[in-house]
Amino acid sequence: MAQGVRASVKDVRHRLSVGELGSAPIVLGLVLIWIVFQGLNDAFLSPRNLSNLSVDIVGTGLIAVGVVFVLLIAEIDLSVGSVSGLAAAAFAVLNVRNGVPEWLALIIAMLTGAAVGAVHGVFVARVGVPAFVVTLAGLLGWNGLMLYVLGASGTVNLDDQGLVATLTSYYFSQAAAAYSLAALGTIAYFLASYQEARRRKAAEVPSRPLSRIALRTAVLMVIAFAAAHVLNQFQGLPLALLIFLLIIVCLDFVLRRTPYGRQVFALGGGIEPARRAGIAVERVRISVFMVSGTMAAIGGLFLASRITSASQTSGSGNLLLNAIAAAVIGGTSLYGGRGRTWSALLGILVIQSIASGMALLGIQAAVQFMITGGVLLAAVVLDSLTRRSQRAHGRA
Hints:
Order of helices and strands: HHHHHHEHEHHEHHHHEHHH
Structural class: mainly alpha
Shape: globular
CATH architecture: Orthogonal Bundle
Number of strands: 4
Radius of gyration: 21 Å
Number of helices: 16
Largest sheet: 2 strands, antiparallel
Strand order of the largest sheet: 1-4
CATH class: Mainly Alpha
């Protein structure tokens, strides 16, 4: 283990020297935020508040996961807030007003998001309209369609015992559920890291030594079991958090372990080089916007579940800004080619932690916006400095 610590310290120093900071700054920032708010109000790290925080991050976090995909190809999607509201409205109207079964209305709502993303992707990839313009038009147009779908009443209340409402209200109260998830996550991480190290060693490229993998696994295990213990002190493992983590893991696998994921990263390095490498650029760009639209729809359903209704304010407010900020603050580069689905989790944890701490302290939302804006600016500046350092060392 000591050897693993020394190797990790050496690796960190090397990464810092060449500008590869990874997620270290955001993790340290998150820890600092938690320490400050806990010092100001000892209820911040209470099981109740952390459990609520773990559910509050899900809706916006899922939307941010889709934004990560778009940012990876150096594009932007400004319509995700409106798409999330449209999906929630479509589900509510189909299920509540027209009696469509919840499972079918749920599928139609997600397909709506995918279809919207496909429309955006076609205009961007095939027509050549800048993504900023296409999705800005989508922000306005899909919001208008949502208002039209909702009709004169403007609000549709969901069945508080229904499938969608259960997404954010159900908890696995058995202590074994949270601890089992922590154990499975730790084991899966170790096995995945070990297999990757074996493959890299077989290919005669640099790989992590077993001691370093063991150290990382031990740190993850401590964090996972501590989180499980805290959740079990309140109501147990939230279903919403479980779904969020599963989606992150699955999409992370898609990005890092599949040919499609490698094509997405390659596209972030430049369209022409990707085209010359034989990548179907148009197809990949369209698919990325479809992923963004689908994740926006799923996130919108979770946000509707949280308040058990869809209304004219669904998808509005600072939702769009928070989703994009979460992806960027979590470490996804605005310049494309760098980021992970876990970026959305880290970023939304920072944003929602600030919101939760401010609420506990009774500080007005205006201050929260200013702080979040400052954190976002710091993340973008750090991203720019990192790219400059990597370019100086021939890594960008």
